[in-house]
Amino acid sequence: MTVAFEEKAVLEFKGRMLMMTVLLLKDLDPNTLHRQVSQRLEDAAQWLRDAPVVVDLAQPEGADQVALMAAVDTLRGLGVNLVALARNEHLDSDTAAMLGLGSISLAGGRDVPRSAEPAPQAEQPADAGHTLVIDQPVRSGQQIYSRGDLIVLAPVSTGAELLAEGHIHVYNTLRGRALAGVRGDQSARIFCQKLDAELVSIAGIYRVAEDLPEQHRKQAVHITLDGDAMRFADLK
Amino acid sequence: MTKIVVVTSGKGGVGKTTTSAALATGLAQRGHKTTVIDFDVGLRNLDLIMGCERRVVYDLVNVINGDANLKQGLIKDKRVEDLFILPASQTRDKDALTLEGVEKVLEGLKDMGMEYIICDSPAGIEKGALTAAYFADEAVVVTNPEVSSVRDSDRILGILSSKTRKAERGEGDIPASLLLTRYSPERVERGEMLSVEDVKDILAIDLLGVIPESQAVLNASNSGAPVILDSESDAGKAYEDAVARFLGEQRPHRFLTANKKGLFGRLFGAQ
């Protein structure tokens, strides 16, 4: 009997969009932090307690390293699953490494100054050529990514995921997840004929099924982002 | 022309083997030469449902490995003409199934003039299920009217649209139809089960049939006679309808509403 000694590949690189929670710290005082974070965690659902968290500082320029270390220790002590520090010109990867954290750029999200937000109309033509149209049902376990807008003409099942850099339109029932503006476009919108989603997200701001407004459930809706808040409106 | 049909579900225990046995038997009863293959290597069951477990000598893996030829592996049904069973191996695991091997077996069956080859898929979405589905021309998705089964069926439908040979060749999705089993109209009315409409709405595929929850199915399994042979039973009739629809006949769906028991029914416990 002959045996072939062909080495099996033991690794595989996979490109994936991951959902992480960003914890924005406005003050580094350990006592205040301990009190407020433990209060929030008590109220939070289990998945939020286990979620990987990226620490971001509201005033990175003034942060001293000792205070930052104390704050990180406090958070770790409370069981927050810290994975990285948001990188910017004041906080480099060396600071993150000192804290035992990875370094992640949040550019495209909050780091883009609000005032410099481009007019939504100006962005439309650039995306237009990339619109992806799907006319088959999107089944559980399937993931669809569009570089521009995404239009789905069939049901999107629970466990399916729609990702688009632009808008998402579902002209049927949306039972899975829909993430519009995944590269940080806050003007992205979600339209659907019947909202029964597991999760909807625009530019990283999201709501899970439990938090969807009751009056819009199973209705035709239009979802937009207004600052950090999602707005739901009837689609008439 | 041979048609290869995979009977699949994702979830286990929903009635794939019962359905494979009934569908194959029903097709053969109508004069179509049919083979039903058990792909559940390691968890062999089809032979029991078909009542041929005492006549198994060789199995699918033996035929793939060339330990036996196809004629030796096939078991001819004693009740219905034109019906053959190819059992799974109980001692091997699913790694013993290779696509080349399965293709060879299917080609062999085509050469024997089979009109239908029914592939009874194992549960799950791993190699066994993918191998059973790979060469299929058509799929029958077996689902129970409850959320986890429906979600698993949805998952398998997604996999069918990308992992069959036809899909890989860019020939498009294979047609898939829904067979809803263990349906209890009483429990649907009480809100304990999803209705036919709910399931159709979620899965968005054609309905091949609805098989009522029935003692006849259990009796059939225990006696090793496919339930479709019990032509007096509700489940037997429902499978008969499903086979007819599979062959293109139009038949109204039965057994969708609860039996309203009248006074006499209640007094005498009649069904």
Automatic annotation (TrEMBL), chain A:
What Gene3D superfamilies does the annotation carry?
2.160.20.70, 3.30.70.260
Claim: Cytoplasm is one of the keywords in the record: no
Domain (Septum formation inhibitor MinC C-terminal) ranges = 133-231
**Domain Septum formation inhibitor MinC N-terminal intervals:** 11-82
Q: Does the keyword DNA damage apply?
A: no
Superkingdom, natural source: Bacteria
Going by the UniProt record, its keywords in alphabetical order are:
Cell cycle, Cell division, Septation
Q: Which Pfam families match?
A: MinC_C, MinC_N
Protein family (similarity comment): Belongs to the MinC family.
Oligomeric state and interaction partners are given as:
Interacts with MinD and FtsZ.
Q: What PANTHER family would the database entry show?
A: SEPTUM SITE-DETERMINING PROTEIN MINC (PTHR34108)
Main function: Cell division inhibitor that blocks the formation of polar Z ring septums. Rapidly oscillates between the poles of the cell to destabilize FtsZ filaments that have formed before they mature into polar Z rings. Prevents FtsZ polymerization.
Know the name of this protein? Probable septum site-determining protein MinC
**Species of provenance:** Alloalcanivorax venustensis ISO4
UniProtKB/TrEMBL annotation, chain B:
What SUPFAM superfamilies does the record tag this protein with?
P-loop containing nucleoside triphosphate hydrolases
Entry-linked InterPro entries: CobQ/CobB/MinD/ParA_Nub-bd_dom, MinD, MinD_FleN, P-loop_NTPase, ParA/MinD_ATPase
Keywords for this protein? ATP-binding, Cell cycle, Cell division, Nucleotide-binding, Septation
In Pfam terms, one family for this protein is CbiA
User: Where is the CobQ/CobB/MinD/ParA nucleotide binding domain positioned along the sequence?
Assistant: 5-227
Assembly and partners are described as: Interacts with MinC and FtsZ.
Q: Spell out the protein name for this chain.
A: Septum site-determining protein MinD
